[in-house]
Design brief:
Blueprint lengths: L1 E6 L1 E3 L8 E7 L9 E8 L10 E7 L13 H11 L10 E7 L9 H16 L6 H11 L3 H9 L2 E6 L8 H7 L9 E6 L6 E7 L5 H6 L7 H19 L5 H7 L6 H4 L6 H7 L8 E6 L6 E5 L3 H15 L4 E8 L5 E4 L1
Parallel strand pairs: 5-6
Antiparallel strand pairs: 1-4, 1-13, 2-3, 3-7, 3-12, 4-6, 7-8, 9-11, 9-12, 10-11
Bound molecules: adenosine-5'-triphosphate (ATP) and L-homoserine.
Length: 343
């Protein structure tokens, strides 16, 4: 039996909209969210005939809302595309795929990117295609077009990435439903930055969903020169600052400010604007900086100590604005990325 594991991820890290991605992992197995998508692939006896030769079992986060139909579920749809583009039609022998998701859905923690990466790896495994991780990254990018989450999910660590090709040949939905063509090669470039090992990630997860598409619809088509400069100045410093020792909290906090997406999304997360105003390293020792995790609604704080005090302070501010449940968890950087191994 094979097991595919893909980490959840946090995109943007403030100024790096569609650029930065940070792969995440739980600090202990007892934490509520493993922040990882796991697929177990089990061959079924030749007589078994599930529809499409593929039985899907979903457990974990959002399992009730995920399709178990082989040509509807995002993971298996991506796998079918990878197979089709290699001249292989469908799952050739019966398999059971048990998906266990520890990544809360639509919370800005990269669940869809993890599903896409897992789907590409599943296609690679079923078709015995022997694709390199670099080539699998191309496959991921024609389906999920932001290199930030998929870059971190594939390669692990803290990455920055840029697309070399802005518009792959067809829309993701068309690619998934009927394309026979493999993706162009080398669609994006990425780089893994060093991260000071003292840095931990506090994720505050509100109890509501925010689809990335809805959060992207909030964004303007064009930006002012001032805002573009504001973000590129911070993007150029943040990866260096996060790799340094000792860390400089005041500089990091300033370098995590953003003008390209957070100001347009903050109304969707009541209290977030106030969190940005109040959570400063000079008031909360150990804190490095705060931003939205991906498209939200989760909030990410980088810190080296005082995790509970920082997390509770964020939750208290959010609760004043919206009295709902907030989970928080301290996470680490996942350095491994996506893996496939025998179990
Ligand atoms: N394990 C999975 N199996 C199948 N589909 C999944 C799985 N995980 C996520 N998805 C699909 O991805 C959707 C969530 O994607 P969305 O981009 O809105 O949020 P996200 O990826 O969690 O957040 P972000 O992109 O901001 O980090 C789910 O509603 C579901 O359709
Ligand atoms: N960079 C993306 C991440 C979510 O997939 C966004 O902020 O919309």
């Amino acid at each position: 039996m094979k097991q595919i594991s893909v980490p959840g991820s946090s995109a943007n890290l403030g100024p790096g909209f569609d650029v930065f991605g940070l792969a995440l992992k739980a600090t202990s197995p007892s934490q509520k969210f493993s922040v990882c998508l796991e697929l177990q692939i089990e061959p079924l006896p030749p007589g078994a005939a599930p529809p499409g030769n593929c039985e899907i079992i979903c457990i974990g986060e959002g399992a009730d809302s995920l399709s178990t139909v082989y040509d509807e579920n995002l993971v298996t749809k991506v796998a079918l595309y990878v197979l089709r583009s290699h001249g292989i039609v469908g799952f050739h022998s019966p398999v059971r795929i048990c998906m266990h998701s520890g990544i809360p859905l639509s919370r800005g923690l990269g669940s869809s990117a993890a599903a896409v990466v897992a789907g590409v790896m599943l296609g690679n495994e079923i078709g015995q295609l022997n694709l390199s991780m670099e080539r699998m990254f191309d496959y991921c990018l024609v389906v999920e077009r932001h290199p930030d989450n998929v870059g971190a999910a594939c390669h692990g660590g803290f990455i920055g990435a840029f697309m070399k090709m802005q518009a792959p040949p067809s829309e993701p939905s068309e690619t998934l439903s009927k394309s026979l063509d493999p993706p162009p090669e080398d669609i994006a470039s990425y780089h893994r930055f060093q991260v000071n090992p003292d840095i931990k990630i506090i994720i505050i997860i509100p109890d509501f969903h925010l689809a990335t598409t809805a959060a992207r619809e909030r964004l303007p088509q064009t930006y002012s020169r001032e805002d573009a400069i504001f973000n590129s100045q911070r993007c150029s410093l943040l990866p260096v600052l996060l790799g340094e020792s000792p860390l400089n909290p005041a500089k990091i906090s300033e370098a995590m400010r953003d003008r390209l997406h957070q100001p347009y999304r903050q109304d969707l997360i009541p209290g977030f604007e106030r969190v940005l105003q109040k959570l400063k390293p000079e008031v909360y020792p150990g804190l490095l900086g705060v931003c939205l995790s991906g498209a939200g609604p989760s909030i990410l704080a980088l810190a080296t100590s005082n995790f509970e005090r920082i997390a509770e302070a964020v939750c208290a501010i959010l609760r004043e604005a919206q009295d709902i449940r907030y989970d928080w968890q301290v996470l680490e950087v996942d350095h491994e990325g996506a893996t496939c191994r025998d179990i």
